[in-house]
Specification:
Number of domains: 1
Number of strands: 4
Order of helices and strands: EHEEHE
Structural class: alpha+beta
CATH class: Alpha Beta
CATH superfamily: Lrp/AsnC effector binding domain/regulation of amino acid metabolism (RAM) domain
Number of helices: 2
Shape: globular
Strand order of the largest sheet: 2-3-1-4
CATH architecture: 2-Layer Sandwich
Radius of gyration: 14 Å
CATH topology: Alpha-Beta Plaits
Strand content: 35-45%
């Protein structure tokens, strides 16, 4: 399983519409509206890197109102349940 994080900048008038549109794409696990330099964070969970490329270039980047994306590929996941104190 490949997890990718896609940081998205969008036109302010389109953010509310883009959240549900992004969440409806195959391979998208979660979408968050966020404060900061980006407007939305999209979490992808797919079988391989080719699917990441397809979702970003054929799905996310084609939605009206998106002005910029940056894709991060996760290597390892950590959670509080994995950490011993």
């Amino acid at each position: 399983m490949v997890t990718a994080i896609v940081l998205v900048k969008a036109l302010p008038s389109e953010i509310a519409n883009l959240g549900p549109a992004l969440a409806g794409l195959d391979g998208v696990a979660e979408v968050y509206s966020v404060a900061g330099d980006e407007d939305l964070v999209v979490i992808l969970r797919v079988q391989d890197h080719e699917q990441v490329a397809h979702i970003v270039t054929e799905g996310i980047d084609r939605l009206a109102g998106i002005t910029w994306t940056r894709t991060l590929i996760a290597f390892r996941a950590y959670s509080a349940n994995d950490v011993s104190f």
